[in-house]
Structure formats: structure tokens, C-alpha cells
Write the C-alpha cells for this entry.
Amino acid sequence: MGSFQEELKALMPDRFLERRASAIERIDNHPEMKRLRQKYPDRSGDLTSPRRYRDVSEHLVQCDACATCPGLIGCQNVQKGHRSVEEPSPDKQDELVFRLKKCELLKSYERQQGIGERIKSHFIPEHILNATFDDIEPDPPRMAAIAGAVKFCSEFVPKETVQGLYLYGPMGVGKSLFAGAIARELAKCEVDVLMVYVPDFIEEVKDAIGSKESVAKKLDALRTVPVLIMDDIGAESMSGWVRDEVIGPVLQRRMERLPTIYTSNLTIQELFKHFANAKGSQDEKKAARIIERIEPFVKLLPVGGRNRRRG
């Protein structure tokens, strides 16, 4: 009397056996199988055994889908954005097991989603927050500023970089776009950035004066964020209180510790005059103190070119 396997084989239709043999042959000749045998010569011996047919087949189907990847939205794998990868079995020294792991497209998508969370903003338009260096037209009057901004991002080291940037030039030349591109590039490296439009932020702080705790909380965010971008400084309505109780303490806390990036229509000399002529508190010494918390800790970058708001 033959073995059970022989009896079972005798009961199966020839066509079934042919299909099974053909499927095993396809698996055996698949390029991925050849790769696995080369990489794991001691662990790949059982990959074409009947008991591994299902998980090996699923692995190969997903490998084929990844080989003709249509993008994350059109992903055909069982779990969208995941690919099947092999790992040595932790339990059996002569086996491989297959796991699902996030593919690079899904990782990139999640990083992009996280970028938005790492750029905190107050009153900054969405197109500025979504800006990249590719959005900045590289015309000659802006090349030095582009190079300086890119260099700042490429050389930035968290908790070590303390020098910021001062981007200045006429209205409409794209200074805020530069700041947005810097913020986005740093956020890709998982650096927290806070970008505030200074005139509106000052008004918000004034509105919160009745609540000391609220004012302190708002200012503390500026004092402690790893990178602060103060957009359009010098365009705010300047008073002695704004200069001495808002801007001064924030910059005092940051200087020599954390980098600050400024955009302004004013040169440093013009910004000094702006602070010196504060409404109700004209004081050149106090203005000089503010400038001493800015100028030594930034690289000055003029931004030129045409007014892009006017086409």
C-alpha cells in the first residue's frame, strides 16, 4: 500500500497538479527568488516548499506591484504605501519571514504632513508657508540672498547654530517667500520653526494686555522656539512699550542662544531709527540696545529685483 501522499496525489486531477507545478516553477524562476537565494544561501532552501506557497506568493505579488509602482494613490498592495520585505526568522535559523514595511513614498508623504506641523505660524499666508527654493526666481539681484539662505539651511545644526539672517529690500521683491522656503527646508530636517508676521502679532499681543498670562505665553513661544522668523519687522506701529516690553525681551533671550531670521523693508540703520522714534518714547540708547541684539547675530542679505506683486 502506498503512502498517504501518493494516495492523495492519485485522487487529484492531472490539470490541478499541472497548474500547481507551473505555479511553483514560476515562483522558482522569479527574479526576487534568485535575489533571496543569493543574499540568504543558508535560509532560502524552503521557499518553494508547499507550506510556504501562500506567503511566498503574496511576497512576489507585492514585489511585482512595487516594480511597476503607479504612485502612492494608485498603490495596488494589500496595505497601501507598504512593501513586503524579507527578514531572517527570529525562531528558525534556516528560514526567512516576510513583513510589511512603509515604502519611501509613504514615508515622504508623512514627512510632508509633519512639515506643516513643525512650521507654526501667525498671520502668514499659506502660499508663503508652502514655499520652496524652487519657487524663487534666480534673477541676478537675488542670487546672493538665495545662496546665503540655502547655505544657512545646509549648515544649520540644532542647538549649535546661533547666527540668523536679516533679509532686507524694497516691498514686493520676495523676502517673505525666502523666509517661507527657509522654514520649509528646516522643517524637512525636523526643526521646529515659528514664523510670525510682526505687525499683526504685535496687535495680537496688545489685545491680550488684559491677561498677563496670555501675553507671557505668546512671548515665551517666540523666546524658546529653535528658529524664529520675524517677517516684516519695522512695519509695525512702534511704541516704547512694544520696543521695550515685547521685542527687546524676546531678542535678549534669543541672542547667543537661538537663531532668528528677519525680513524687513528697512536697512539696519533705518530699523534703528524706527526703534529710536518710537511713539511716546523717543530714545536712541534703547533703540541701540535692540540693534545690538540683532546685528551681531545675523548675516545681512539684501534682496533686490522687481516688485513681483505688480507683475
